[in-house]
Known about the structure:
It is a single chain. The chain is an alpha/beta fold and 414 residues long. Helices cover 18% and strands 31% of the residues. The chain contains 8 helices and 30 strands. The protein has a 7-stranded mixed sheet, with helices on both faces. It is elongated, with a radius of gyration of 32 Å. The chain binds adenosine monophosphate and magnesium ion. Magnesium ion binds next to loops.
Amino acid sequence: MHDHDSGTGLLSVPEARERVLSRVAPLAPLELPLQEAYGCVLARDAVSDRPIPDFPSSAMDGFAVRSSDVRAASPAHPVELSVVGRAFIGRRPNATVGGGEAVRIATGAPVPAGADTIAPIEVCEATEERVRVHQSSPAGKHVRPAGEDVGEGDVLVEAGRRLGPPELGLLATAGFSHPLVHPRPRVVVISTGDELIPPTETPEYGQVHDSNAYTLFAALREAGALPVMAGIVPDDVDALKETVLMHLVQADAFISSGGVSVGERDVVKAAFFRRGDLDFFKVAMQPGMPQAFGFIEGKAFWGLPGNPVSVFVSFEMLIRPALLKMMGRAELGRPQIQAVLDANVSGPRGKTQFARVSVRRSYFFWVASPTENRGSNLMSTVSRANGLAVIPPGTETAPSGSSVQVILFRAAED
Ligand code: AMP
Ligand code: MG
């Protein structure tokens, strides 16, 4: 493909994304129980082996009768029929309806054979054995026919569709208890750095709380993947290798943060298992320059820089689309809008800048307010944002009042 250690050439964002996307594939489908299949993409058409509903039922309390028997019924000339049985909900009716006969029926109960219409209780005068019907009722009236919703052999849910609430309900109706779906990838999250401690501990001077693991946990959950928290690994090659090996069996992919640049402590770089397992490259984007990507024992491995804002932006731009592809999703991008900047944003020469902005709807257009000062690299500026404005390479300044493309990473109202 190319040199794994060609750390010199800068890849554009689309090139970097393509490099990753071209090497991941949808995970092999599994038959999962409905609750686990929720949110997953269906891997083959779900075809109904029965009509839905699968029996005709009454939409009213009353009597199941033959329309031909009650055709002439009116208040002045009611038609008298003999009551030969009952139809309860959830059971086969205990009688069929012949000429001159009626079966007492409850709403939702199966319509007995021989009847083609329902005379509602309101137009009937009944004793135990006889009923007088005061109104005609054409065939099919107040009957919910079998197959009204879905016919036998019809496609209930198409392959490629993500299973949301209506799909889960529809599959359950048709008795699909284990639909075939692309599973959610299990992604192991590793934080590297001698300076890191968990947020539960009080830092000594110079120590830093591991925040990247939590940013990634939430980003993974939000993308629909299953994070596996592997914790903090010191800047030690053997410790990193051991952590990776320990988690291989339960992983579809790995994300590490820290240790991918050129410093002497750059543990991911030093630890890649065999020459060529991981590819180290630089992406022409700010933030998030140095990156590693490859496969270890067949599992995708992303090595992100340690900087927390870089972690967030790299995940958005390079990892999230790949995870969605692994989940069988067709649309891999976020929604994007055109918005008008309400302040100047300066772009780094030769790189795409992803400027954190807060977008809101004005009367006729969207307005994007930068949440950062020039050059700032602080997580609080991401937290105040809901979008990343794309400032293309070569733009020295995107002036206030100009239009920019904004990637929405959360709903504008969140
Ligand atoms: P590195 O890429 O390892 O050189 O790290 C770059 C910067 O990110 C350093 O200031 C690290 O302390 C910081 N950093 C690395 N990993 C984490 C982490 N898991 N949580 C918070 N900050 C981190
Ligand atoms: Mg480090």
